[in-house]
Amino acid sequence: MSYTLLRGSFVIRYPDLPRQGPEPDGDTVKFLPDSPALVEALPRRSGRPPDLNARGVSVRLEAIDALETHFSETHQELDGANAARDELLRLLGFTNVRFWEDLPNRVESADQDSIRGHALANGIDANGRLIAFVYAGDHPGTDGTTVFVDGPLVDQSVNGRLLAAGLAYPAFYATLPAELRTHLAEVSQAARRKAGGLWPRSAADPNGAATVRDLAGLERLVMWPKLFRRLVPYLAAGFTDFDGFDGWLRADPVNRDDELFLIPTLERGNLHDVVRGAGQQIQLTTWPEDFIISPDPAGPGTPVKPPLVKAGDLLIVAALPDPAGADLGRESVTLLNLTPAAIDLAGWALTDAAGGRRELTGTIEGGAALRVTLDGAVRLGNRGDTIILVDPQGGSADRVTYKEDQVRAGRTICFGR
Hints:
The protein is an alpha+beta fold. Helix content is 17%, strand content 28%.
């Protein structure tokens, strides 16, 4: 039950792009890590590298599934979906959060656009999101250290608190350690017995089938979100009843008919084994804590481990954004290889906040530094900028930011790595 500690900030609004900011919901929130390279070093169960950029990475909360506030231009029951989202933001410490009337999933204003917090992560999902238990405030540990996660620590997480309040369903993937899965199953069952949160309105579950005549009716229901996410494209394809739902699931074993392990019978199965549909009736026949979902498989030949050059092996240690005289063609970035072996730079690149890209070539010998002169494709701003080192897989291997008051003509900025 070891997870990687990631320190950073949760972000709900971009001050420079307020109408294009994140869309937090009950189980997903944007996170800006202090050390992006640590994210790149996490396992990639489905072969997908993290969708990480200068603004951060989305975190998918481990072990829970909240009602959808937005999915393929639809949503689930908004009272329940918004309740989970609002409680997630409150637990992280955000206050007075208001959403745009015409963009109801984006934050118009709040007392804080971002707030310090930390994540305990164990990998990257098939959508490039960080999978983690999340917490408000800074952790006393060193960034990147291994943290042993047990039941009491999970109970303190935002994930555990949402599940205990009945504001989210359980969703246990095979990457969740068995001891934590057993603990969280008990937490979810206790919330259901207390009829808290969404449970009094839960439909299409072992307590009874739900009647769904169309998409508009589906949007008003409370049901396990993964089942909802399968029903939306099925109805959008023009089906008017669920007589063909079983066959539709089986036709796509990767994107529809998720592979499962059925805990009560100790058998392998698929989503179609726990769903029953006929006419206008649809039902999840097994409680979601009673099966384990397999992550989407990696494509043939797709690596599921981080690159051989690990996070922190190659760093940006200095930059010259304002050389004496003309800047063009004289700006530079200095890289340092911390390993004892040479690193081949083929496929590596430097990028800036504006999206410019400078391809790298050659090698850096072990323990050596390399000064890269920029050719104009990447321009370092004299009023501050961000420099990103991109690895051959397209991931952010390192990133540094400097401010205007650090820029002096002819002087190199040392990033003190």
